C-alpha cells in the first residue's frame, strides 16, 4: 500500500497545479474574462494543433526543430565535454584553456547574433552554431568542476592499488564527476531550446520558430500559443530523458535516491 501511494504521489501530484491552471485558463477564456485576441483558450490551441497536424505542417516543423537542436547539442556538448576533461585532468590545459573559456562564457551567446549572421548568413549553420555555443559552456563548467571535486583520497587509494592512469580515470575520476556532468547536461538542454527559439525567429523558413513568426504576422494567436506549448513540451521531454539517464548511470551512487 505504501509503495502504491508513493507511486501515485510521484506520478500524479506534480500535475495537479498545471491541470488547475489549464482549467482556470479555459474558464476565463470561455466567459471572455480573457479575450481570445490576447490569449486563446486551451481548446482553441488544441484545435489549431489538430488542424496543423492534419495538414502535415506540425510534425514536419517539429522534426526540423528537433534535428537542429540535437545537432547543435551534440556538437557543442561534445566540445564542452572534451575541453572539460582536458582542463580537469591536465594542468597545462587548465592553465591555457580554462581562463579563456571562463572569460568568453560571460558574453551572452545570443548577443552574438549580428556577428553570427555576418559569418554564416541566416541558414542552418547559423542556427546550429548558436545552439552549440549555448550548450557548450554549461557542460564544460560542470565537467571541469566535477573532475576537480573528485575526492583525492580515492585517487591516492587507486594509485596505491596499482591502477594505471586510464584505470584511475575510468574507475574513479569519471564516475565521481558524473553527477556534476549530468547536471550540466540537464541545464544545457534548457539552454538548447532557448537558443533555438531565438535562432528560429531569424530568417527561418521552417521549424517551430518559423510557425510562430508566420502566425504572428497573420495575428493567429492560437498558433503562436501552440508554438510556445510545443517548446515547453519538448523541453520537458528532454529533461525527462535526462532523468532516465541519471537513474541508469547513477544507480551505483548511494547518495542518489530513485524517487520513482
Automatic annotation (TrEMBL):
PROSITE patterns: ABC_TM1. It holds the Pfam family BPD_transp_1. Gene3D superfamilies: MetI-like. One of its GO terms (biological process) is alkanesulfonate transmembrane transport. Residues 58-242 form the ABC transmembrane type-1 domain. It is a multi-pass membrane protein. It comes from the Bacteria. Keywords: Cell membrane, Membrane, Transmembrane, Transmembrane helix, Transport. Its main location: membrane. InterPro entries: MetI-like (IPR000515), MetI-like_sf (IPR035906). The chain crosses the membrane at residues 12-33, 69-92, 104-122, 128-147, 223-242. It is found in: Cell membrane. Belongs to the binding-protein-dependent transport system permease family. PANTHER family: ALIPHATIC SULFONATES TRANSPORT PERMEASE PROTEIN SSUC-RELATED, ALKANE SULFONATE ABC TRANSPORTER-RELATED, MEMBRANE SUBUNIT. This is ABC transporter permease subunit.
Amino acid at each position: 500500500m505504501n509503495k502504491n501511494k508513493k507511486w501515485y504521489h510521484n506520478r500524479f501530484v506534480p500535475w495537479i497545479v498545471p491541470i488547475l491552471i489549464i482549467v482556470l485558463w479555459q474558464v476565463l477564456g470561455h466567459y471572455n474574462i480573457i479575450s481570445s485576441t490576447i490569449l486563446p483558450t486551451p481548446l482553441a490551441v488544441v484545435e489549431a494543433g489538430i488542424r496543423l497536424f492534419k495538414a502535415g505542417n506540425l510534425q514536419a516543423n517539429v522534426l526540423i526543430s528537433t534535428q537542429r537542436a540535437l545537432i547543435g547539442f551534440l556538437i557543442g556538448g561534445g566540445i564542452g565535454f572534451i575541453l572539460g576533461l582536458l582542463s580537469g585532468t591536465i594542468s597545462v590545459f587548465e592553465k591555457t584553456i580554462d581562463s579563456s573559456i571562463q572569460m568568453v562564457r560571460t558574453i551572452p551567446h545570443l548577443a552574438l547574433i549580428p556577428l553570427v549572421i555576418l559569418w554564416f548568413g541566416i541558414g542552418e549553420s547559423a542556427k546550429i552554431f548558436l545552439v552549440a555555443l549555448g550548450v557548450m559552456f554549461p557542460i564544460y563548467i560542470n565537467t571541469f568542476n566535477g573532475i576537480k571535486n573528485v575526492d583525492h583520497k580515492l585517487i591516492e587509494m587507486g594509485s596505491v592499488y596499482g591502477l594505471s592512469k586510464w584505470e584511475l580515470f575510468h574507475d574513479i575520476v569519471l564516475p565521481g564527476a558524473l553527477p556534476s556532468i549530468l547536471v550540466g547536461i540537464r541545464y544545457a538542454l534548457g539552454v538548447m531550446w532557448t537558443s533555438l527559439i531565438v535562432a528560429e525567429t531569424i530568417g527561418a523558413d521552417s521549424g517551430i520558430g518559423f510557425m510562430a513568426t508566420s502566425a504572428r504576422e497573420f495575428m493567429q494567436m492560437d498558433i503562436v500559443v501552440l508554438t510556445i506549448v510545443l517548446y515547453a513540451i519538448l523541453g520537458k521531454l528532454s529533461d525527462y530523458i535526462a532523468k532516465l539517464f541519471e537513474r541508469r548511470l547513477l544507480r551505483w551512487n548511494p547518495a542518489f535516491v530513485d524517487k520513482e
